[in-house]
Amino acid sequence: MQLYPTILTLHIVFAGIWLVNLISDSVLKDFITKNKGKVGEKKFIRLYLLFSNLFGMIGASGILLTGIIMVILHPHYEFFQMSANHWLTSKQILIVIQLFIIFIYVIPAAKNLRSLLGADLESTEPVTESGYANLKRIFKLNIIINVIVLINFLFAITH
C-alpha cells in the first residue's frame, strides 16, 4: 500500500495541470478575441490549440491512469459502484462523458481549425468565418470540459 500515496500525489498533480488549463483557457480566449482581425491572431489561436491540447492530454491521461490504479489498489473503491462510493462513481461517469466529448467533438474540430489556419503563421490574411465558427465551437466545448473538471475536483475534495 506504499505505492498508493505516490499515485494519489500524482493524481493531485495531474488535477492541478487540468485546473491550470481551466485558468489559461480564459486568458488565451481573451487574447484571441482582442486580436480578432489583427496581425498575429493566428499565432494566438495556434497557441490556444497547442496549450489546451498539451495540458489537456497530460491532465486527462494522468488523471485516467492514476485514477484507475487508485481504484485497483484501494480495497474500498470499485468501478461504477454507486452504493459504495457515489462520489467516485459520479467522477467516473463524468470522466467518461468528458473523454467522449474530447474524442468525438474537440479533436476533430481542432484538426479542422488547424487546417483552416494554414501552415503560414506570418500570413496577414484573416481567419475565415468558418475558422471563427469552428473556434467558437471549440470554446464552447472547452467550457463544458472545464465545468466537468471543476465538478470532478469538487467531488474529490468534498467526498
Question: Could you write a compact summary of the structure shown?
Answer:
The chain is mainly α and 159 residues long. Helices cover 80% and strands 0% of the residues.
What does this structure look like?
With 159 residues, this protein is an all-alpha fold. It is built from four helices and no strands. It has helices spanning 3-34, 41-73, 86-117, 129-158. Helix 1 packs antiparallel against helix 2 (41-73) and helix 1 (3-34) packs antiparallel against helix 4 (129-158). The mean pLDDT is 85.
Which key features would you list for this structure?
single chain, 159 residues, mainly alpha, elongated
Count of domains: 1
- Please report the distance between the alpha carbons of the first and last residues: 21 Å
* Outline type: elongated
Largest sheet: none
- Total number of helices: 4
Gyration radius over CA: 18 Å
Mean residue pLDDT: 85
Strand elements, count: 0
Task: Spell out the blueprint of helices and strands.
Blueprint: H1 3-34, H2 41-73, H3 86-117, H4 129-158
